Amino acid sequence: xxxxxxxxxxxxxxxxxxxxxxxxxxxxxxxxxxxxxxxxxxxxxxxxxxxxxxxxxxxxxxxxxxxxxxxxxxxxxxxxxxxxxxxxxxxxxxxxxxxxxxxxxxxxxxxxxxxxxxxxxxxxxxxxxxxxxxxxxxxxxxxxxxxxxxxxxxxxxxxxxxxxxxxxxxxxxxxxxxxxxxxxxxxxxxxxxxxxxxxxxxxxxxxxxxxxxxxxxxxxxxxxxxxxxxxxxxxxxxxxx
Length: 241
Ligand SMILES: O=C(O)CCC(=O)C(=O)O
Ligand SMILES: [Fe+2]
Fold this sequence. Notes:
With 241 residues, the protein is an alpha+beta fold. Helices cover 27% and strands 33% of the residues. The protein has six helices and 15 strands. Helix 1 (7-14) runs parallel beside helix 5 (80-103) and helix 2 (18-28) packs across helix 5 (80-103). The protein is globular and about 50 Å long. The model has no long low-confidence stretch (mean pLDDT 96). 2-oxoglutaric acid binds next to strand 13 and strand 15.
């Protein structure tokens, strides 16, 4: 299951201002990667959804109390674009993840290369791929949640908006909440355009306080889609048990 490189996407990711993105991630716990995918790449990726042979499972969210809508987890080998995004994004995010873990006094550290991190997941029994395509219609939504699939947790993940807001759908905003110690929850609505990606904390992130860093618990979800169809690509870096 090594990840095929999509060279165009790899170059595009390397060209982003990762110093500024890392600073935004440290400050907010999330950051937008503008126009990560072109409109054509978005629609080509969304068009994979009905191809059963590409996926290992199909989830109807309402059946599990996850919200309303559906998603499919890809099988290995991942489509080249998805595998390319996963490997190239991981390489940029691993240093941020290691810094976060140090600040949160967590002992786990992440290898520089995603292939090596996957070997670590697989050794822990987390062998099933987690990248997924999601699809929401009118009235659908995604409840606030965390994408944890075992003890191996890479602390950042990415979601790419494959549909055009305003044209393909209305409503359906990407929402994050954070719970600071002894405070009520704070919400952020992430402004995403067609092909934009959001990088965000899976579970918790460090925040600088007057007496050092403390951990803030994060959740993400999607508000109700009012009209049309909203499709996303989710990229989670740990595999699932
Ligand atoms: O559809 C979205 O924007 C969120 C999808 C999601 O929960 C994920 O990618 O983990
Ligand atoms: Fe999620």
